[in-house]
Amino acid sequence: MRKKALVKISLLLVLVFVFTATSFAQTTVEYWTTQTEQERVEVINDLIARFESQQDQYQIELVTVQENDIPTKLASGMAAGRLPQMIEVGAENILNLGAEGMLDSEAVNDVVNRIGEEDIYDGALKMLSNPAGGYFGVPFHGWVQGIWYREDLFEERGLEPPTTWESIMTAAKEFYKPEEQQYGIVIGTNKDAYARQTFTQYALSNNARIFDEEGNLVFNSPEMVETLKFYAELAETTPPGPNGWRDARDLYLAGRVPMMMYSTYIMDDIGLQATDYAGEQGAIIENLVDKTNFANTMKHKTEAVFGQINGLTFIKSEDQEKLEGAKTFAEFLLTGENYIDFLHMAPGGMNPVRPSIANDPKYLEHELLEVWGEKSARIASGLNSIGKFGYVGGRVFPEIGNITSQFIVGQTIMRMTERGWSAERAAEWGHNEMQDALD
Amino acid sequence: MQIKKDQEAKLGYWLILPTVLSIGGLIIYPVFYNLWLSVHDVNMNPTMPNEFIGLSHFINILTDLDFWISFRTSLIFTSTTVIGTTLLGLGVALLLNRKFPGRAIVRGIILLPYVTPVISAAFGWKYLFNPVFGMFNYIMVDVLSILPQHINWIESPRYAIFAVIIFNIWRNFPFAFLMILAELQSISDTLYEAAEVDGATIWQKFKYITLPELKFVIGALVILRTIWNFYKFSEVYLLSSSVEVLPVYIYEKAFSTYSFGEAAAISAILFVFVLGFIMFYVRKVLEW
Question: pTM to 2 decimals?
Answer without folding.
Answer: 0.77
